[in-house]
Amino acid sequence: MLIEVKVPVLAESITEATLATWNKKPGDVVHRNENLVDMETDKVMLEIVAPKDGVLTEIKKMEGDNVSSNDVIAVIDTAIPEGIVVQKEQSVKNVPADIRAGLGDTSLRDSSHAELSPAVRKLIADNNLDLSQIKGSGKNGRIVKSDVLDHMEHIQMASQEESQPLASVSTPSPAAAPENKIARAPVVIDDERTEKRVPMSRLRQRVAERLKDAQNTAAILTTFNEVNMKPVMDLRARYKERFQERHNVKLGMMSFFTKAVVEALKQFPIINATVDGNDIIYHGYYDIGIAVGTPRGLVVPILRNVDSMSFADVELAIQDYGQRAREGKLTLDELTGGTFSISNGGVYGSMLSTPILNPPQSAILGMHNIVERPVVENGEIVVRPMMYVALSYDHRIIDGHDAVLFLVAVKQIIEDPTRMLLDI
Prior knowledge:
Helices cover about 30% and strands about 25% of the residues. The protein has about 425 residues and is an alpha+beta fold. It has 3 domains: about 1-75, CATH 2.40.50.100; about 95-155, Irregular (Dihydrolipoamide Transferase), CATH 4.10.320; about 205-420, Chloramphenicol acetyltransferase-like domain (Chloramphenicol Acetyltransferase, 2-Layer Sandwich). Strand 18 (about 370-375) and strand 19 form a beta hairpin. Helix 7 (about 255-265) packs across helix 8 (about 310-325) and helix 7 (about 255-265) crosses helix 9 (about 400-415). The longest helix has 19 residues, at about 145-165.
């Protein structure tokens, strides 16, 4: 019996999507609920799975094609040819031979390798990787796509380092180098100055559209301050081991800033508001967006009702969002809404920036790298770990007075975290 594989019904805000990667080809045996193709929307990556066991007989839409809800993209024949056995569970023996060839006996017995997704298996096979050298970060040590990409990047960086000549620290003798002559490498001119045109991904198109819309609509202004991170760093150093033992997650900087932002938003509710035509909507809840960089681009998953979350809840949620963002597993609901956002450019080494608003939100906090700098305390010059912070805001509804005081409130809370405990 021939059955059609259709694009699932997309959300109201999504009119069409793009087929990214087919994980099966015509003639392949497929299993029910097995991922056939990765589909990219302007927000998330989705998987279209096989509705029944069978053989993929035809692919009607190719990689890169735009599709809409209920479009037919493939055909499956549920009449399994005689002699083909459909395995319900993926086992090691079903791992392609070109992958198994790079594994030792220990890797073959590792159950985590038996749970590789089709996309991961294809990536490993296409790049001829040794699966035993890849460390899994998924549940129970499962290897996910981001692990393979990180491994490939590590190999590339190691190869580049090996290709660089080692600089000698010894001083050459006069006999070793001709007098008054400088050895110069020959200049090689490449006549083939190639260019490559690549269409934007749907996510990149959507990001570009939203950010440009923010610039065209909002009156964006940015105010800055600096924060002494020593109190937080001392607190983390004192409790980080016990925190991780109890909550099974590291105590990071983001939980402090996320909770500090909520306390400051309670003092200045206009920062948590949005513009709707000629009206201002004040939100009585605190849904904080956390900007996450992924290979596909920037996404901002939302932590909802942060005022009721503990530090551990925040850290666990951010860790989960970060991993699933890299895997393209975030849902549309997790990327929708939000009343305020935080962007941490410091993880990439940024010293200072002016973050852009995430519409329809009216403000965003930018964090930056921590650098030891001389500062004056009680009339003495001391060295402290300092961070520049920036608040970009919509000047249409937020006055500079409130923006500056909001950022000062965040600064005071970070520099004295007990304020959050005492609600002062």
